Amino acid sequence: MARPEVLEQIYTVVAQIPPGRVTTYGRVAQMTEGATPRMVGTAMRKLPDGSTLPWQRVVSASRRLADHGGASRQRERLTAEGVIFDAAGRIPAHLLWP
């Protein structure tokens, strides 16, 4: 797991992703001082229940949802925000943030 200060940076970046947009684990990692995409994924997976952080807006580099237990809930939340998916399950590049 990432150091507390790196976790704080990850959470700060994710909190800034606007509704209807997504970013990748790698992009979040690049905006921190020392995080890796895997650390970002772990940080999202270990959020406490009831967290208001928009974890659903962080996706894989392929712009598909990562294969995890919350993928269907993630897709529902993103769809409710207006995010669209193509026939292959990819999110269009124009929805990437920043």
Automatic annotation (TrEMBL):
Keywords, alphabetical? DNA damage, Methyltransferase, Transferase
A biological process term (GO) from this entry = DNA repair
Question: Tell me, what is one Gene Ontology molecular-function annotation carried by this entry?
Answer: methyltransferase activity
Q: Fetch the InterPro entries from UniProt.
A: ATL_DNA_repair, MethylDNA_cys_MeTrfase_DNA-bd, MethylDNA_cys_MeTrfase_DNAb, WH-like_DNA-bd_sf
Gene3D superfamilies per the UniProt record, alphabetical: Winged helix-like DNA-binding domain superfamily/Winged helix DNA-binding domain (1.10.10.10)
CDD domains in the cross-refs: ATase
Q: What is this protein called?
A: Methylated-DNA-protein-cysteine methyltransferase related protein
